[in-house]
Amino acid sequence: MADERFEEPFHWLFGDQLGPHFLRPDSTVVMIESRSVLRRRRFHRAKAHLLLSAMRHRAAELGDRVRYLRAETYRDGLARAVGDASVTVHHPTSHAAARFVREHAQVRVLPPRGFLVEPDAFSRWAESARGGHLRMEDFYRYVRQDHALLMDGDQPAGGKWNLDTDNREPPPKDRDTLPVPAPYLPREDAIDDEVRADLDRWERKGEVSFVGRDGPRRFPASRAEARRALRAFVKKRLPTFGRWEDAMLAGDWAMSHSMLSAALNLGLLDPAECVEAAEKAYRAGEAPLNSVEGYVRQVAGWREYMWNLYWYFGPRYRESNALGHHAPLPDWFSRLDAEAVEARCLSTTLAQVRDRGWVHHIPRLMILGNHALQRGWDPAAVTDWFHRCFVDGYDWVMLTNVIGMSQYADGGRITTKPYVAGGSYINTMSDLCGPCAYRPTERTGERACPYTAGYWEFIHRHRDRLSHNYRSARAVKQLDRISDLDDVLRDARRRDPDAAP
């Protein structure tokens, strides 16, 4: 292994390694815009725009220091950029990219950047886990202690590690939007115009195909924009983030969420600066502890946990299908056709994905993921859909989030129970059910809520497994008290003929 005197003349930046913490001094930077990445999968148009815009903005900032190649493949681009010369790269964020760089003897892989915990440290923590059981809450406390985040000495700030119970408030009544400032909105420039023109041309020529709508760009594409977005969130939106963290409003797609996940996953922000900015606001009395702790838990807890589990579980994890779900995704879902759906919650959420390539974690989990889980859609296909259709979607974050949490396809390695719920949950946590054609309390008939009926059909389909899980056994017992269960099952199968049998 070469020593740390930077013997390699070139340093390669992937498209999600765009912040200053990914650079090496005195090295010529290589960036490769691979067309084959866009050919292989049908990405959301806004995602493709954001990625190319961010890469080209970074290249413009680096100026003469960068060799920016537009190539068919990474292999072709690397050969054209450096020939046989040695090159370094920080650990990529996917199994496929990691395999690719390790196949090249000329490439030296450096430790990962953009995360608080390295995989080796996570492995040591996992091996010391109590009883061999991995729990996100235990890992979160480990990160808090190890990085001195929201700590008063050796105790958590405020005396509690987790204030989740304070962050489950339903949305305010009689309001279409939260009483908070709008999220930061970047300004498009000539680079965005160039990207949009390229995407238009490639589509017209039939070289690529997208889903969803593009424009205006809503997420940072440069370090300067990302820092402004972080400052705006901490100052204007963090104070109200916690109380409505799990709430939904049909007319407020952003709520009080940070909208920083895309910038983080592009490498434009480092997680340390995000959680440190949030803690600084708490210490200054500018944001309540429940909001700050909730945000820190998202970034330093869940995001770090997903990243490290991705590497800890390995490539075979994507094959997990403990529930035996194999139903294909319907065409309307794949096309983001919100008009094809009558259920208002699903139609609204699908339209938000179509228009922006983003919704916050509750619509992802309890509307989109919940619907897919109830209908027994193939978890690998659901994972791919989330990866392609979200601007912040990358293999490492979607694989564990969807396979493990959303679809329970790993049988409980990440969560202790399936995240499945009926219409009553959605009705409590949103304003989506009122004008809907369906009623959240009805499970049969023309006005039966697809989520309520689907919930009981799911519990019935997996009753043997769920009856042995202490967190879901109660639902199985309730199932036995439903006098019209046969009608529920019949209606559910008539309504969703392509769902799991």
TrEMBL record:
UniProt key word Oxidoreductase: no
Residue span of region Disordered: 154-185
Basic and acidic residues bias spans: 163-177
Keyword Lyase: yes
Keywords in alphabetical order: Lyase
GO MF, any single term: lyase activity
Cross-referenced SUPFAM superfamilies: Cryptochrome/photolyase FAD-binding domain
Pfam family, one: DPRP
UniProt-recorded name of the protein: Cryptochrome/photolyase family protein
Organism: Streptomyces reniochalinae
